[in-house]
Amino acid sequence: MKKSYLFVCIFVAILLMLTTVQVLAAPLPVRTSSVSPVKKTPQVKPQTQPEQNSDETSDDGPNGKANGQGHGKGKVQHYQGTVSGKSASSITLTLADGSSKTISVNSETKIKIPGVKDATLDTIQTGSRVNVQVRGADAQGNPVARMVMAIPGKPAKAHHVGTVTAYGNGSITIQGKDGTTTTYTVNADTKILPKGATVAQGATVTIIAPRNPAGGALVAKGIVVHGSGEDSESD
User: Quick one: DSSP state of residue 166?
Assistant: First the structure.
């Protein structure tokens, strides 16, 4: 009887041990988060209005109407050519392809000549090269000039030292050693140097004349009369 009771106790102890080992060896359940990931919303950049091209702006007045001088709506255009004619209200150009273009000018047209202050259309000489900025058209359909700008060309070769061949009536002509002659305009501002010197035919002189960006005749700012033995030439 005692042996049977002992075997039962041992068997129950073994079962308890096995049950305890299985419980301890079982993996713990993994807890997962129930919070869903937050999606980022892309930021939308505000659209900006494109800048308006200044060349396509209008010269209209505050009421949206043209100012009556021919500067109406339209793009700014440029014409470059040689002045073949002009009047009080227009300028005519010979373009690079040989064609002719008449452009209207008015009181609002700006005249720009490098080195010349307060230039006017009269200051620009026929034969000068110019760049004309236009916009709109007049009643005859001619483009209207906003600005006329003279293009200085290469200075023409001129003898500044030579022998006087003609003097008077507002001009002086000198001849260089190579036989070519150059004529200069003489006015009230032209100075004769040295003081008390006399300009006459046959005299050797040096002409002081700045370049004329507008084209046309060279204007003598000064005439230096040489003494005997000072005859020399420079360009």
Answer: E
